[in-house]
Amino acid sequence: MNLLDGLDEAGRQGLGKAMYDFAADLFPICRSITGNGIRETLGRIKNQIPLDVFDVATGTRVFDWTVPKEWNIRDAYIADSGGRRVVDFQKCNLHVLNYSVPVKERMPLEKLKAHLFTLPEYPDWIPYRTSYYKEEWGFCLSHSQMARLEDGEYTVCVDSTLQDGHLAYGECFLAGRSSEEVLISCHACHPSLANDNLSGVTVATFLAKHLAGRDLRYSYRFLFIPGTIGAITWLARNPEAAGRIRHGMVLTCIGDAGGFHYKKSRQGNAEIDRAAAHVLRHCGEPAEILEFSPYGYDERQYCSPGFNLPVGCLMRSVWGTFPEYHTSADNLDFIRPEKLAGSLRVCAEIVDVLENNRCYRNELPFCEPQLGRRGLYGPDAGSEEIMARLWVLNLSDGRHTLLDIAEQSGMVFSRISAAAGLLCQKGLLSVSTDGQVKSAAKAEAFHPAIPKTKEGSPN
Ligand code: ZN
Hints:
Elements: H1 9-26, H2 36-46, E1 52-57, E2 61-62, E3 65-66, E4 70-79, E5 85-88, E6 103-108, H3 109-112, E7 116-117, E8 139-140, H4 143-147, E9 153-163, E10 166-174, E11 181-187, H5 194-211, E12 219-225, H6 229-237, H7 239-243, E13 245-251, E14 260-263, H8 271-281, E15 287-290, H9 299-302, E16 311-315, H10 337-356, E17 359-362, H11 384-395, E18 397-401, H12 402-409, H13 413-425, E19 429-431, H14 433-446
Parallel strand pairs: 7-8, 11-12, 11-13, 13-16, 14-15
Antiparallel strand pairs: 1-10, 2-3, 4-5, 4-9, 6-9, 10-12, 14-16, 17-18, 17-19
Helix pairs in contact: 1-5, 1-10, 5-10, 8-10, 11-13, 12-13
This protein binds zinc ion (ZN).
Residues 190, 196, 326 line the site of zinc ion (ZN).
């Protein structure tokens, strides 16, 4: 099931290019937490994977929050006294303070400056700023661009609307054998920013494409949502589905050239935390595991104490640690085809661990079974393949999962999982039902207030 394993170099490059092209196609759209930009983005995702789009009305209460007014923008500019556009939204959608209220006024430069945002430390970059929950207007521009503005009168125009409407989000649900779910969540609310926003959208879309149509143990739910308010809205509307989440990841900033970072869930030692750490340890790229903190992306909502879902956050460079973050330099040059493909591969391997991690029982636990006469032992007795069989047989006592065995043996999960498959075929190993009972009891303890869901078929 591992993605990219069956691909040669040309195939890997082709996949990376297809992912990059998809991000490039979405890049020009002016997205925000509501409005037509995110709707158009969801429409293009829907061309790739099955997607249900939901609209939630302005004013809807979602826990302690309220779904905001819908923002749409057609044009925005600052023009000098000669009518020449000196700052133009049509050239770069970061130029407008995202969620700006409409304005059409003439004013002197001194007054205008109170509404201008720049980055003096990176004078050629345009910052990305928002004003979601405060009605304001403004422009973002490069510091050098501002320095060139001469004293005089300017016309400012933001041709936007901020009205009652809807918040839109998209869900791709892939049914598995069990009703228990794996959540993959990404924000799709930033305008032309590539790593922060589109890399997560792209990897999630291609992961859904990869999993669609497969025989899956878990059901998978992919959310394409506006950051913060989207996750809060989804959780408020879907308490039963939230109660079925057994593992989850937020994907963000995952297309740049940096090494991987995985931020653990609030639980800290959930199966997803261990699976991600295991895959990253063996992925062949630099990787770091970060402890949970109540800041960052939508894991903040999934890991709020009332839900406490096992949802971590997979990134390459961590938001806020690279200067391009939330600026015009987070563009299509900042993400790379091979990094998008590498991130997809890591996600697919994490899914592989979740799909195959379970407890087994050694059917002949009294002394070692005779492997030689079953063709399971050869002259290369110390080989990893044979060692994997010995590890699985020894630790399959109904209490150790395959991930436990992989960690204790130091071997990669796929090796251990392949050994377990072979030993099952040979009748030396069987799935331990004790292990499943134990994991179901553990899952229930996470969600004491949420009704128990139907168990899936044994797998
Ligand atoms: Zn951001």
